[in-house]
Structures are given as C-alpha cells and as structure tokens.
C-alpha cells in the first residue's frame, strides 16, 4: 500500500518538475524571466478560479442563496483551496501552517478590498465596461497575490527559482 505522505510528496515534486520543464522551453529569453513558481501559481489559481465559479453557480444558481453570500462563500473556499495547493505543490512549504494561514488571510483581505472592490469598482466609476474592469483588476490581483505568496506568505520555501 502507498504511503500517502510519500505519494503527495511525489506528486508535488512532479508538479514542480513539470513547471520547471515548461518554463525552460519558453522562447525569447522568457525562461530567464519567469520563475517556475509563477507558472505553478497560474495553473493552481486558474483551477481555483474555476472552483470559485462552480461554487457560485451551485450556491446561487441551484440553491438560490443570495448573491452576496454565494460570492463570498465561493471566494473564501477558492482562496482556501489555493492556499493549500500552493503551499504543498508550488512552494513546498513546511513552515507552521497557522502563522502562514493568518498572514494569508490578511493578504486575501487586502486583495479583496484593494483589487476586487477598489480597482474594479474604481474603473467602472471611470466609465470602463465592467467585464473589462474586472479583467484589469484581475491582472493586478494576480501580480499582487503571486508576489505576496512568494515573498511574504511562503518566504523561505524550497528554492526552485533562480531569483530567490
């Protein structure tokens, strides 16, 4: 029988090697600019965004819960899942989870206020179409969240990038 800890470690190591392999094949010198953890972050957070939308659809579309509650629960669940997956598969952190989770909660709160509400709503107020405003805010959010996870939440993770 497989030891779950060994299996998880192997999966995490394979994920890291896959990200490193893909980044190594990037053209135009991008392999020297884009760290493998950025690709891992993009893959994991794209997946968790899908989970967020799925939960929103279930909570509001099927269960007919209020939009504010459905959005909030989907957001919290997706960001919790992103934390767990990034911690294990992308940043290989073995630091105490409690402190990291508390820092992550603050990072997510700042993200929500600054980018989800602030940038997105501000752009709409300036006349930008709301879908475009959300995409622009999402770009800012991605840069902020990756930076915060790499250099604040999971600082000191296993060095897989040349930029540490």
Short description:
The chain is an all-alpha fold and about 160 residues long. The protein has helices at about 5-25, 30-35, 35-60, 65-90, 95-125, 130-155.
Separate helix tally:
6
Helix content class = over 70%
Provide the residue-averaged pLDDT: 84
**Strand segment tally:** 0
Q: From N to C, what is the helix and strand string?
A: HHHHHH
Oligomeric form of this entry? single chain
Could you walk me through the main structural features you see in this protein, from its secondary elements to its overall organization?
By secondary structure, the chain is mostly helical. The protein is globular and about 40 Å long.
């Amino acid at each position: 029988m497989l030891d779950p800890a060994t299996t998880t470690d192997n999966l995490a190591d394979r994920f890291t090697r896959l990200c490193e392999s893909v980044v190594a094949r990037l053209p135009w010198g991008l392999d020297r600019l884009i760290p493998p953890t950025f690709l891992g972050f993009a893959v994991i957070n794209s997946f968790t965004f899908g989970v967020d939308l799925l939960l929103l659809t279930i909570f509001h579309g099927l269960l007919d819960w209020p939009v504010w509650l459905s959005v909030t629960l989907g957001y919290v669940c997706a960001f919790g899942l992103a934390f767990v997956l990034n911690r294990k598969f992308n940043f290989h952190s073995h630091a105490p989870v409690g402190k990291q989770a508390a820092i992550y909660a603050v990072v997510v709160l700042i993200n929500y206020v600054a980018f989800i509400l602030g940038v997105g709503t501000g752009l709409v107020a300036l006349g930008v179409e709301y879908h475009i405003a959300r995409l622009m805010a999402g770009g800012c959010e991605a840069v902020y969240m990756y930076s915060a996870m790499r250099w604040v939440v999971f600082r000191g993770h296993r060095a897989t990038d040349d930029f540490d």
